[in-house]
Design a protein that fits this description.
heterodimer; A: alpha/beta; TIM Barrel; eight-stranded parallel beta barrel; 10 helices; about 25% strand; B: alpha/beta; Rossmann fold; eight-stranded mixed β-sheet; about 30% strand; globular
Chain lengths: ~250, ~200
Amino acid sequence: MITKRIIPCLDVKNGRVVKGVNFENLNDVSSPVELGKYYSDCGADELVFYDITASSDGRKLFTDILKEVASNIFIPLTVGGGINTIEDFDRVLKCGADKVSVNSGAIKNPDLITQAAKKYGDQCVVLSVDVKRVDGEFRVFAKGGREDTGMEAIGWIKACVEKGAGEVVVNSIDTDGVKKGFDIELLKAVQKVVKVPVIASGGAGSIDDFITLFKEIPEIDAGLAASIFHFGEVSIAELKKQMAKNNITVRI
Amino acid sequence: MIAIIDYGVGNLFSLVSSLKAIGENAVVTSDEEVIKSADKLILPGVGAFGDAIEKLNSSGLRELIIKQAKEGKALMGICLGMQMLFEKSYEYGEYEGLGLIKGQVVDMQGNLPENLKIPHIGWNALSFKKKSPLFEYINDGDCVYFVHSFYAENCDDALVATCEYGKELTAAVQKDNIYGCQFHPEKSGKVGLNILKAFCERS
């Protein structure tokens, strides 16, 4: 049986992790290299790194750091942020990323997914989508969730999977940061229309939220979260223990 | 020295760093002399079978790998590299593999229960079928990381481990000095590093 994946996500700016992360045994709380190793050692099934750098100088720094992160962890690594062209795919894959996540880049140019899937395989292309309810429908938001694109989300996700996205990260803006659980309604709607792995993001505040997610939607493949792991509110080891107790298949 | 055979497909970054992490000297190469002088060979691979085997054939590496393996040098195929060890693949056509291990590679589509997602992506538990030196440092039930849409079948007595995904899928094979992993040991945490270590320690 394939296991449910637990994925911590790190935002990196100019080569440093933002939102100070506080762990014991970590000398440098904003070093992506140390944090990557930490998560890899404590049972994370995969890591996601988002490059939130604005300048090209910062981006160069990010790729240097990425190489160091990638050579020190031995679990799958997904990299996103600022991926707009095939050259961007190439840049991060050469630094050791296993998968590349596209968000605004796919909205600007949906063919990017097709091109990348052809060149690197579907398994390499992750669609990341920010979704918010507007006038009773799910809408795709761009630019880090700041801009309503007017596009209906479920249809958009379906179309992107048909173009070759091999996985989908669904981030609910409505539940993000609220810490009251994942957006089950949205995730169920997405799950119904795609056959590729779906990763839930946005809203996890406790271990119970993950258990509810995997119980309510047994087809969901993974749960992604950031701050609750970073601030030690939820420990990955404890989370997995509780999942196993609840008969959810996990890698311990 | 471990030679990672470079035939122009796939990203070898993680494989090189994982071998480095276990203290092995690994070289990515397509050079005949380097391959001949290596203690062990790793045949990596991602992408489509047809493309990959065509590249091996046209570069002359096919005969070299077969000869080296038949002379007794330890060889490990990973993912598509494992699939190429078999006799045949039916991935978008029909292709002849290296024929070092008995078996064929077939599509999950149509052969697995409808409700399962394809590709098979994620961590899955190994179920040992036979003793293999590869498992020296790991346990039955340990999880490893898979990404694939095709799988090997009819491997007979070369089958050493399976995983459960709608049915029992070939996860690892071994025939004498020739080893194959459908999963990615370089992406499978400590368990994966321990599999690589066990392979590197074969004489």
